[in-house]
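Reproducibility note. Readers wishing to regenerate the assembly model reported in the main text can use the exact inputs given here. Chain order matters: entities are listed in the order in which they were concatenated for prediction.
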Amino acid sequence: MSARPLRVVGRPVPRVDGLEKVTGRARYVTDLVLPGMAHARVMRSPYAHARVRRVDVTRARALTGVLAALSGAELTWCEPYYGPAYRDRPVLAIDVARYEGEPVAAVAAVDEATADAALDLIEVDYEPLPPVITLEEALAAGAPLVHTGKPQAGIFADLSTLRPEPGTNICHQFHFARGDSAGALASADLVLDDTYRFPPVQHYAMEPHAAVAVWSETDGLTIWASSQNPYSVRVELAKMFDVPLARIRVVVPHLGGGFGSKTYAKLEPLAAALARAAGRPVRLAASVAEAFQTVRRCAARVHVRVGFRRDGLLVAVECDADYDVGAYADIGPRVVQKATYTATGPYRVPHVELAARAVYTNTTPGGAFRGFGVPQLAWALESLVDAAADRLGRDPVELRRQNFLAHGEEFAPGDTPIDGKLEESLSRAAEAIGWTRASAADRGRGVAAMLKASVAPSVSEAIVRLHTDGSVSVLASAVEMGQGTRTVLAQIAAEVLCVPLARVTVVQPDTAVTPYDQTTSSSRSTTMTGRAVQVASEDVREQLLRITAEALGVATRDLTLDEGAVVAPARRLPYAEVLLLRFGMSGGELIGRGVIAPGRTAAPLGGSTPFWEMAVGAAEVSVDEETGAVRVERYVSVADVGRAVNPLLLEGQDEGGVVQGLGHTLLEEMLYADGHLLNGTLLLYRVPRADDAPPALECHFVENADGSGPFGAKGAGEGSLIPVSPAVANALARLTGVRLRDLPLTPERVWRALRARR
Amino acid sequence: MSARPLRVVGRPVPRVDGLEKVTGRARYVTDLVLPGMAHARVMRSPYAHARVRRVDVTRARALTGVLAALSGAELTWCEPYYGPAYRDRPVLAIDVARYEGEPVAAVAAVDEATADAALDLIEVDYEPLPPVITLEEALAAGAPLVHTGKPQAGIFADLSTLRPEPGTNICHQFHFARGDSAGALASADLVLDDTYRFPPVQHYAMEPHAAVAVWSETDGLTIWASSQNPYSVRVELAKMFDVPLARIRVVVPHLGGGFGSKTYAKLEPLAAALARAAGRPVRLAASVAEAFQTVRRCAARVHVRVGFRRDGLLVAVECDADYDVGAYADIGPRVVQKATYTATGPYRVPHVELAARAVYTNTTPGGAFRGFGVPQLAWALESLVDAAADRLGRDPVELRRQNFLAHGEEFAPGDTPIDGKLEESLSRAAEAIGWTRASAADRGRGVAAMLKASVAPSVSEAIVRLHTDGSVSVLASAVEMGQGTRTVLAQIAAEVLCVPLARVTVVQPDTAVTPYDQTTSSSRSTTMTGRAVQVASEDVREQLLRITAEALGVATRDLTLDEGAVVAPARRLPYAEVLLLRFGMSGGELIGRGVIAPGRTAAPLGGSTPFWEMAVGAAEVSVDEETGAVRVERYVSVADVGRAVNPLLLEGQDEGGVVQGLGHTLLEEMLYADGHLLNGTLLLYRVPRADDAPPALECHFVENADGSGPFGAKGAGEGSLIPVSPAVANALARLTGVRLRDLPLTPERVWRALRARR
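Running the prediction on these inputs yields the following structure tokens for the assembly.
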């Protein structure tokens, strides 16, 4: 097969599920109706920390129309704890409630009104306990402990190195060092250090969490869930209910946004337990307020020290980060470990000392959120790099360029060499924002860069089926959550098999039938699942060639594919004819298989990242000195994506990343007072609106086809978010001379800083 | 791998879906609820034959709550004709209604009551035309023609040899000959000939036909259907609506009996058209009365002439059969062709002349029904063999034994050699019924034998997935319709992969995800789909062995599987450990693939049967001479199955076959008067009840592991039905001296025959 120009990959085709979504016809989990389906409601703790002395669901259970009423103490017929890092989170509070909003009891009834009424009949005796809400409170000597016992190990063997510190609120510690950072800092020409804070924020997916569960004697548990990683949910449920994996079917219909909030089990354990107790299908749908009580981004306090030589060379980075993982570990310890490993960002740093702690508090559990802990660190590091440029009298763009890791350079021994060109992204960003041109007097410009590893080791598998009419079904378990993966996977199969995009269907994830895929997160789907689809498609292609070669008595190397046909020197066989040769009748299909499993490596975290996500952001801001309101007038994001399989969708995703980044940069923070979340509702929590987007917003892509994914692609989608905060703050600092260290950059904070400057 | 005793295959394990079904929790198509689902009703022709001058659905469409109202003339936006042999059947009558009960218009409304009300608002002008109801009427010179135009070719290329006779009611003719039958008959010592009649009967599945259809912009058409061959339905729908196969998803949930009635498209085209017109999901569920108006068994008039030598050697068979295929061809022409090819039954016959016609009449279309045309012919041939034995003074058992085809003998050049031992089945049946012992004076005994080919060429494919905990998902598209195929496929995978049966799940057919399987009919699933599952499981097994061999540095031949582990000379690795070796993490799955596609051959019908279905029946009957009521006191069925993968299910299936055979033998017949079906309802049509089953009913199996299916199995399930009529009639003849030629053997017919004898 000689190389030929790409037909479908690289084209800005509209998303395959766009029409169904914009017409409102797409059906999400909460739209499902099953015969006899019951509706669930959850009673939640009003206290951030309390002993649960008694939960009495007797009266609720007796209410007409109630099909099940459960308390934590009654869950003796299943394993009631779950969690990916540690199984420290009960389906319903057992003995202790550890955060405001924690589920304490639940009911399922014939309708929602009855379920609501039943909740009022549940009696709970609480004994309030002193809570720890902030990192400072949690880490203080003699602090109340969120967890007192030793948690059970999580069921993901790959996370088995995680360990809590008994007798403290430390959920996990991570340490990584190379070289002699103390010595290097001692001899550096410039040492800067500072502490930066990143707020707890909510993912705020358009669709809150939802699950519909049903048990059958034949098939076990089927659960339709708003999940980003149905296979992780499956293994949790298998453990909880002690059933084989093959008897748990996790199905993901259309999903209304994830951003990490829908990784690992969330509502699924409770929905499954209620369905088991009720003996019929149960629908459990969270409200937006309940999503705030389910998971959030880990807040962080990050102390970073950087050392530079006078000539601008970065010689050492020390980082000490505390992440607030809330009341239950969720995947927080891994967030901390994984992010801290890349705390040095996209720079060549010979001397490194990195330490981080995941800390329990009596707040909503913190888990995965777009960026997976990196935004918290990049906020600190990229602010400090600009501060250093200022002190060194260097252009921040040039200082970064000087210290960037080069293409092919080692990040850490055993890990994947750098697979992109940071300097190219930086140049593109600088050019697009007009870095070298003078800005208006009331505008400031700033840049920031990022580097992030994807999850490793990592497995994706796919099955591709070619039907007799040359149409194609792709079976893969990447979750379409708005990022466009169904379209991208369809493009890849259409490209390899030379069929029009409209003849490819990508089946939605369903663990009973679509093969294993580790997770839809970590920007991995195009690279890993895409590669699996590519390999499976190539497997089908090889079959087409082999059948034709045998039938015509020619060599496969003399055959090519072209628009639904195998082309031999003197003949052209449509796929239908090739399949007729294979099957001797007008039926049958070719089945291709793709398995991508790089396995464990000698890299520091046990697996080499399948790709490095790299991006640069550049902001131009203005500030209202009267109010402190910062306005991002222009923003440029440049991501090194290897190849944009679909530039249109990629642009949409990166625009979304920038705007979401502006949320925690300017607007968003979950605010607590006396252990109570003050603004955990649709009304009070302020996410960016359309008119908060920069009037000029550009997303560019560096495409050198140097990624390990299909056609040289690599992951994207998190990179655009991460530089936003430091780019904006750097711009503000360059405009006003004021450097803020706490996010979000609210008008009040900015106004106070401007006022302090005067 | 050394041979080891079977662990799961061959065991009478309970059916995997039994509990769900007996508790009433199993959900069938009609139980489905989709958001916004509309309900359909069908207006049907009150005439057996009429010109449809006008169908006005305007008023129906205007009724509040009506979402769609369709007439045949309006179906210009799709291909309105369908049918597997010819596309001669309109979704809704166009210009002409060809049988009483033919759909003429249809509506979909918010509920069933509104849909019913809307039907009353539809105006239809009919011009009654003279109908042809019987074969005699249809074949008479100058008979009114059921079809006047040339039908479009069917879309199944394999059926492209079928041809109607223009200007007649002959839908297809078939002819097959070898030797010189005329000469052989002329020189035969005994020639007998006679005409036998077989009535039109209904399948009477517990669940009438049903379909729920929905269109989406992303996925195309999804249809949950009570179908025995979702892949055949898929290709019909793709043609009708001009969409790629990959954009048609036919899902088959639990199915409440098929017996052939649910092969090929039935309600699905109309449900899909209504859903398209309504712009939302549409549920179309037939009543029992409507099932009578959908499909039935082809009635037949069979003239057979047999020639024997004095010593009992069968020298010639001539057969001339007319099958009544009703108003539309459905698969009737293939029924006629396929059955007539084996009209000589299980006997060695040197001189053969076989001819058959499929004949259109103005009655419910005739299609596939358990036995696929063979019961009609066996009724004639096996009656005549007994009559010949009587004339030759031979024991009917011994006469059959003398003429049976031997194991390995050719049936026809190019076709599969005989793969079973007919004489062993016959001996077992004779022994079990006590053939050589004297019977009570008021009892008579009779035997009959059968031979039937399965569909060929034929394709089955399967995917088998091994999960990290050693549990297994089987993806295959054999439809579980009560015969137990889900259990059998699970047993096969469990056997090959050495896991407990409870760890295997067999996914229900869904053309979007479970791979191609031609059809669940023709007794083929255990042999063909089972073999595909076996091969796919072996593929997984090979992967397990290869991974382990590479990891341990041993040869695969030194490894065996044992209860969820790979066993090496000095180590035992549970599958979880093997998968950890493969994937480097606790995720991933092994995917196995099985494709069974023997292809076309030189056999007379273009494909060699994958196996021969062979069985013998023996009946002991009594008769009430006052009323003519025949009572089957004992019945023995012996089927040559190669290996009974599940003897319990097989016994159940063959018991069902015998009882269903007693239906058309003693009770069942669709009765017409003036073109109107008189007894097409639950109340009036008499199928066997539990107390109609013989007090002593035994099903035995010959198991020589000589089948081409998994572990030597071959197909079963039709064989037990086919000998019932002749075995009972032969017993009656031996008891009373009276031979009847028309089924069913109603008391009136028997009484009249007994009376005529005196």
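We highlight two features of this model. The longest helix of chain A spans residues 525-552. Chain A has three domains: 18-26+458-596, 32-131+204-292, 406-454+602-758.
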